[in-house]
Amino acid sequence: MRQDALSHVAPPEGGKLTATPSPLRWFVDSMLGYWVLLLTISLGTAAVIYEVYLKGRM
Amino acid sequence: MFDFTIAGVVAPIFLLVFVGFTVGTVGGFIGVGGGYMVTPALIVFGFPGYMASGIDMTHIAGKGVVATVRHRQLGNIDWTMALSMVAGTMLGVELGVRLLVHFKNLGISSVVLLITSVIVMFGLFLYTQIETRRAHVKTEQMTRDGEAVGREIQTSSLPRFFQNIPFFPIVRCRTARVVVSMWVIVLVGIVTGVLAGFLGVGGGFIRVPALVYLVGASTHIAVGTDLVEIVFSGGYGALRHSIEGHVDMMAVLFMICGSMLGAQFGSIATSYVRGPAIRYILSYSLILATFGAALRLTYVLTGQSVEILALLAVMLTLGEMIFLCLFIVSLVWFAVRRKRGKVVPPWVPALVVS
């Protein structure tokens, strides 16, 4: 059953089947990806704070 | 929301606590207060320029005393150098505050402070990048030549030049192991004092490199001696700014609450996260803060009519602070996981203490 589920994955040199890592893992496994993730969260949070608390009061 | 009556601003309390927390946390990694990011941030959040400078200066003064006591216990203070510099620092702070009052009377304090902050932060970014690369090249060369790589890597030849200036009186700084004309030290004090009084910062980001690259002190002595100056410049500057009506004590109080928490967390984090790596990341975050201040400057110069500029300025300035805190908090979390033998991302071991 497991081999059927992974039948779309090309077998590596050893002949064993391995699952393709999720593209979302790039945001954690790569430092650049992690920075992009944190920066998106940070800029988004800052934009929300501006809209809710600072807009029109500055 | 809190009405800061003296500053004439309505702002959420958590924003000031968070700014204090970020500065407290980051200060533990870079060895200096980190106040250079507070003044532009407060202006971006809507505080008048002279108020931002006064609030920043007053919140730094209290922190300096605590840090000085700690560095005195560690033997990181050269009292001869520190006391020689005090006269220059006090004179510089007075000049800086008077300069700010002059621009306040002209109604352009925010504009001038933002321009100065943009120049200072971009200069700091370039300085950190160049020094990191030079130290990296030198370390590689020493490793290739089979030489031992010490804790301090001196890449500048300027100390020799300044130590040979023959103007009387020559002072012998025993702890720093430096013999130099007192005028060199006084001049460093005046220049950093003017910046401190004007921008409302401690001045460590200029004074520490100046003591290392011009006078020839080692980094830890420069940091300890700089803190003594911050007690004087911060104390005197806070008094002068208060007399001029530049201080909203409630804003200072909220920021001190945040910086106390941040300093505690920062001191814990330094035992988990490697300092040089954070300094490198901090230099990139300075670019965001520089663009944030530049956008706010453009917003003010365009008559506060282009709303998107204010939004982008807040996004970059506040976003940069949130990014720094999130990154340091997550690194500590990854470091704890690694110590417990759990899986961490492959890039983490290079940044955390094993």
Structure characterization notes:
The complex is a heterodimer of chains A (58) and B (354). Chain A is 55% helix and 0% strand. Chain A has three helices and no strands. Chain A is mainly α. Chain B contains twelve helices and four strands. In chain B, the strands form two sheets. A two-stranded antiparallel sheet of chain B has the order 1-2. A two-stranded antiparallel ribbon of chain B has the order 3-4. In chain B, a hairpin with a 4-residue loop joins strand 3 (170-173) and strand 4 (178-181). In chain B, helix 2 (38-44) packs antiparallel against helix 3 (49-73). The radius of gyration of chain B is 20 Å and the shape is globular. Chain B starts with a strand and ends in a 15-residue tail after the last helix. The chains are: A mainly alpha (58), B mainly alpha (354). The interface between A and B is medium-sized, with 22 and 26 residues.
What percentage of residues of chain A falls in helices of 4 or more residues?
55-70%
Number of helices of chain B: 12
Give the H and E element order of chain A: HHH
Quaternary: heterodimer
Query: What percent strand of chain B?
Result: under 5%
User: Which strand order spans the largest sheet of chain B, edge to edge or round the barrel?
Assistant: 1-2
| Biggest interface, chains and residue tallies | A-B, 22 and 26 residues
Q: What integer is the average pLDDT of chain B? A: 83
Q: What is the number of E strands of chain B?
A: 4
Q: Note the gap between the termini of chain A.
A: 62 Å
Biggest beta-sheet profile of chain A: none
- The radius of gyration over CA of chain B amounts to 20 Å
Average residue-wise pLDDT of chain A:
74
Indicate the structural class of chain A: mainly alpha
Strand percentage of chain A lies at under 5%
Order of helices and strands of chain B: EEHHHHHHEEHHHHHH
Summary of the model, kept short:
The complex is a heterodimer of chains A (58) and B (354). Chain A has 58 residues and is mainly alpha-helical.
